[in-house]
Amino acid sequence: MENFQNKIQKASQVIGTSWPLYSFVTSNPLAGFENNHFKEAIQSVKETRGARVFPKAQVYRKAYQEGRINEKELIDLLSANNLFETPEQYLQKLESVQEIKTQNYDSKLDRVMVKWLMAFIDEGLAEWEMPFKEDGFYSSWRILAIYDEDIKVKSLSKLPKTATEVFSKILIKYSDKEQLAIMEHHINALPGWAGYIKHREETNSPWQQKYSITLADYLAVRLWLANHFKVSLLPDTNDKQAPDPNAKIQYLFLKAWEKSWQNKLISELKNQSNNISNTPKIPDAQMVFCIDTRSELIRRNVESKGNYETFGYAGFFGIAMDYKNLENGLSRKSCPPIVPSAYQVSEIAQENKEKQIVQFQKKNERKKFTNYFLKRMKNMLPSAFGYVEGSGVFYAVSLLSRTLFPAPLYNPKRNNELSHENITKPKICHTHKDEIDTIDITLEEKTTIVKSAFDLMGWNQFAPLVVFVGHGSHSANNPFASSLDCGACAASPGRHNARMLARLANQLEVRKALKEKHKITIPETTLFLGAEHNTTTDEIVLFDSELPSSHNAQISNLKKDLQRAQETATQERLGISKNGILAVHKKTNTWSETRPEWGLAKNAGFIVAPRSLTKDMNLNGHCFLHSYNWELDKNGKALEGIMQGPMVVTQWINNHYYFSTVDNETFGGGSKISHNITGKFGVVQGNGGDLKIGLPLQSVNETDEKFYHQPLRLSVLIQAPKENIQEILLKNDNLKTLLDNEWIYLLVMDPTSENNVSRYQKGMKWVETNKMQHFSENVLVKN
Q: For burial by CB atoms within 10 Å, which of 62, 253, 461, 616 has the most?
């Protein structure tokens, strides 16, 4: 089995990881191809899945007509690649091509596989559980397959006893190369389901521990069925999609669009860098937001309301943790998937609030029982019809109210008052595999967490109030709700991390250690608070229940300004002149709303620089913003951490949006109109088929045909000496690979060289943007 297992591991690289709805992490669906050039990767996927990998011709035309694709940039790039017709002629060529989707000849095999996968992987939605699940997928399927009328096998003896036996009997007549091709083909046949099995294996979730399913199990069942249905195991080379003769033109249009966007950004940043004032002033409050593109809007509006300074920092606030929810007792990851969780954070009672905790838990138990009881009444055969008949009028009234009066039903103030954050405080402990310590972490670890945050943001002064603002979202009837929460927190709200960091920074022993060991002096008058930014309503809630009376006036003023910022931010986002808060509350709570918020749509850039560089710019939500001051990062460690962490994660997000936009059927979530939730963890289109792996059509498009998200690869701009960045790249091959393979563009604004901007070229070469030349693209797709 070891030889087969190695092949399965290699074959699984052709798919990404599919995350569940309750922690929908945006990741590159082609992550397994990142060691290949972008052009090689998309050509491979185009051939095997028949996917569209570039924007549609009408998208290019619209971008060209609106000036987003600069005409001179495009013509120069085409000419450098020996293409001398006009842009209009090339657009007409692209528009004349008839798109042909690859025909799926294994529809019966797919249908039978999906039926079994839906039954086995179910995570609590089904009222009646599939028998023998505790034996694992292959074993339980084998026992029950004799009852499947699609399979028509009556004797258990005809089914191999183990997955290994299947491989040995079926694959033995094929060469090693053919075996790998077979595995890749059948994993690629249902990339959504296979990707979720991959996720369960990698994370070893509680469901996986109880009901194990592996890619080996999946392949064993599928290969046996394929052999039984007399379906060819090897992919038919005649079905492979023919090379697109216009692929080179499409790629050059994409590059011209990306370079046009970069040129505009560089021009605006250069103008801004010439106007930066160097008159430091202690702000009334400092607020740290997630680097998320949605933070850019609220940061501008907060800064305009008073003497406030804002920072950008990855939304897990440097704490690699799982969070144990007080309401359901479940632990969920609250840091990037690429970061192993070193800590678990849970809730303990605030001083003199033990009784309130007991009352909260009793109310929570009653709520859970009510929900359980109603579910049982709806789903049990003896009671289902009577329950529906008897309660229909109440549900009808509720539905009508939510349709006609959605805004009044959502009361954020009341929801915040009922939140446990008013009676609890976070406690941090170590995690050791599946065990949790009960002893607090060491002073050295606490100090390191706080210092790292200050280092990464380039912090050199402290206001009387410092607020760490995590973010989450709120929407009604939205299976993809977690995709709108914090990407840096593995699709969890960031408030837990924010509250934990604030509590650590407030501890006297931490401040003392920072001063004695690291020469960081935090004034005694400085208070740290946790908060949450609701990205759907732009409301910012301060968790200030332990607030000392000395800061009452400052907090009161800040709350007033935050509400004013919410009003102007919502007006700007919705394009209205008044009543922005009321409008977003209505949009948030409307059960039929397909776009409660746009999320990270329009992301295109990642700027790593002091806030002063972008403060007076309206970036229209296009950029992730990470604060960084190169002068305070002498050894480059902080910048290396940003490039290894947030830069990689933003590339995941960017490519998730890119591919969900260019081919929503293959890489996205399809239309919300025909979504069906399966097993509580995913959606399928209609009544079956592959598990959807990406964002719904409504999250990236204004209409079925009109795009909203600009499908551009991520352009990273860092303000730091070029030599510092070169050293980091030389030490980190994974970053250099991402750049060389053009999954990311890198632009460096060098403050030691009059802020001139250079662009990275493959092989550690740099070209100044004002001297940029157009290179011939050795396009790897066939012409």
A: 253
- Measure CA 591 to chain center: 23
Question: 636 φ, ψ to 5°?
Answer: 75, 5
Domain final position from 179, 214, 239: 239
Backbone torsions φ then ψ of 200, nearest 5 degrees: -65, -40
Alpha carbon of residue 572 to chain centroid: 25
Burial status of residue 498 (CB atoms within 10 A of its CB: 0-12, 13-18, 19 or more): buried
In whole angstroms, what is the distance from residue 519 CA to residue 513 CA?
9
Binned at pLDDT 50, 70 and 90, residue 370 comes out as: confident
* Tokens coding 698: 């409504």
For 742, the token pair is 């053009």
* DSSP-based three-state secondary structure for 688: strand
Do 424 and 295 lie in a common domain?
yes
By the 10 Å C-beta count (0-12 exposed, 13-18 middle, 19+ buried), 439 is classed as: exposed
CB 550 within 8 A of CB 480: no
601 has pLDDT over 90: yes
Q: How far apart are CA 421 and CA 482, in angstroms?
A: 20
Specify which residues 602 forms β-bridges with: none
Domain of residue 112: give its range. Answer: 2-26+104-239
Please give the mean pLDDT across all residues of the chain: 90
Rounded distance between C-alpha atoms, residue 769 and residue 269, angstroms: 13
Q: What is the pLDDT of residue 782?
A: 34
Q: Both 650 and 742 in a single domain?
A: yes
Confidence of residue 94 (pLDDT cuts 50, 70, 90): very high
Of 287, 283, 282, nearest to 502 (Cα)?
287
DSSP assignment string, 106-172: -HHHHHHHHHHHHHHH--S--SSPPTTGGG-HHHHHHHHGGG-TTT----GGGS-SSHHHHHHHHST
CA end-to-end span of the chain, whole Å?
42
Residue located via tokens 């109440």: 394
| Distances, alpha carbon 584 to alpha carbons 304, 329, 469, 531, in Å | 21, 32, 20, 20
Q: 766, 757, 745: which is closest to 719 by C-alpha?
A: 757
Does this model's pTM top 0.90? My answer is: yes
In sequence order, what are the residues at sequence separation of 6 or more whose Cβ sits closer than 8 angstroms to the Cβ of residue 92? none
Q: Which residue has the higher pLDDT, 356 or 679?
A: 679
Buried b (16+ CB within 10 A) or exposed e, 275-292: eeeeeeeebbbbbbbbbb
Closest CA to 508 of 522, 520, 518, 529: 522
Interior angle at CA 40, CA 37 and CA 43, nearest 5: 145
Q: Fill in the amino acid letter for 483.
A: S
Contact by Cβ (8 Å): 59, 761 = no
Query: For the CA atoms of 376, 378, 382, 386, what is the dihedral angle to 10 degrees?
Result: 140
* 340 and 365 fall within a common domain: no
Please give the pLDDT value at position 420.
Answer: 80
Least confident of 14-23, 220-229, 758-767: 14-23
How many separate domains does the chain show?
4
Q: Are strands 424-432 and 435-440 parallel, antiparallel or unpaired?
A: antiparallel
What pLDDT digit, counting tens, does each position of 390-431 carry?
777 766 777 677 676 676 655 554 444 447 888 899 999 988
Q: Buried b / exposed e across 339-352, counting CB within 10 Å, b at 16+?
A: bebbbbbbbebbee
**Which pair of tokens denotes residue 5?**
């297992």
- Tell me the one-letter amino acid at 502: A
Give per-residue pLDDT as tens, 688-711: 899 999 999 999 999 888 899 999
Identify whether 77 is part of a domain.
no
Q: In this structure, are 347 and 360 located in the same domain?
A: no
3-state secondary structure 284-305: CEEEEEECCHHHHHHHHHHHCC
- On whether both 510 and 569 belong to a single domain, the answer is yes
pLDDT at 654: 97
CA distance 300 to 293: 12
Q: Is 620 left (phi over 0), alpha (psi -120 to 50) or beta?
A: left
